[in-house]
Design goal:
- Pfam families: ClpS.
- GO terms for molecular function: peptidase activity.
- It is elongated and about 80 Å long.
- The protein has 91 residues and is of the alpha+beta class.
- It has a domain at 31-90.
- The chain has helices at residues 33-44, 48-61, 71-83; strands at residues 21-26, 63-69, 87-90.
């Protein structure tokens, strides 16, 4: 019988930490559900179902995180929401 030697390798993985931000959408009494849904589909690339769920959460809870990522990617999306008349901020 022969003996086989197993070698366990250690691998170091470098991870790059990035601070993630969120776009928070706030409820208002001005915009319709359809407008909010269409804007989320356009600005945040949500599916219609995602956008509808976010609009319902905003309506009942007062706010909802609609997108998470690095600030540089969120800033133009948040600007689109604001230009469409929605209340949003990056936190």
């Amino acid at each position: 019988m022969s003996t086989k030697e197993k070698i366990q390798e250690q691998i170091e993985v470098e991870t790059k930490e990035q601070n993630l931000n969120e776009i928070v959408l706030y409820n208002d009494d001005v915009n319709t559900f359809d407008h909010v849904i269409n804007t989320l589909v356009f600005a945040c690339e949500h599916t219609p179902e995602q956008a509808e769920q976010c609009s319902i959460i905003v309506h009942y809870k007062g706010k909802c995180t609609v997108k998470t990522g690095v600030y540089d990617e969120l800033e133009p999306r948040c600007s689109m929401l604001l230009e469409a008349g929605l209340s949003a901020e990056i936190v």
